[in-house]
Amino acid sequence: MADRPAVTESDLQIAGDILAVQHLLQPAREHPTTVAEFVGLARSIAEDRASWQHLVRYDATTRWYHRLRTVPQALGSARAGGAPIGYEVWLLSWVPGQGSGLHDHGASSGVLTVLDGALTEHSTRGALTLRAGSQRVFAPGYAHEVVNDSLDGAISLHIYFPGLTEMPMHNCSPARPEALSV
Asked: How confident is the model at residue 35 (pLDDT cuts 50, 70, 90)?
């Protein structure tokens, strides 16, 4: 039996999905500092359809996205021993068949919220269908591919903290496991 490389697990894989523990979710704050507060912020924006629905465009030739909000680092938002946390909020639309390609978000953590339709998230852990109202949280370096596998359009909201500075693309896809090297 060949030696396999050690598997590195993210905080999410070790601790589990915070979204499954509803009582830990916090109400939205202007300057969130915890994952639960960022999840709460995403939920409050999702509920305020009037603030974003008129902005949505569907484009079959290119991915459409719109930055809803950029919040600079706020005094008092620092984690213990860390720098203050800023964040960005993005709105994305997905026509049937559109996908992100396999990527990560560099040093940013994030919250993905499906606002309308359904999306499929592919990662090394498999495929997960996300319907309207579904949320996913991820840590820095988490690689995934998001695809609209349905026959209808979809809309998603993404919050990155700190704000997104890079989105490295990977050259293989967990949607096509034969392309993964193990």
From this structure: confident
Q: How far lies 152's CA from each of 94, 116, 118, 120, in Å?
A: 9, 10, 8, 13
Q: What is the pLDDT of residue 167?
A: 83
Both tokens assigned to 77 = 């938002």
**Exposed/middle/buried for residue 115 (C-beta within 10 Å: 0-12, 13-18, 19+):** buried
Q: Structure tokens of 29?
A: 């704050």
How many residues belong to the chain?
A: 182
How far apart (Å, rounded) are the C-alpha atoms in residues 136 and 114?
A: 9
State the DSSP code for 104. -
In this prediction, residue 34 has a pLDDT band, given cuts at 50, 70 and 90, of confident
Q: Distances in Å between the alpha carbon of 171 and those of 64, 106, 163?
A: 22, 16, 24
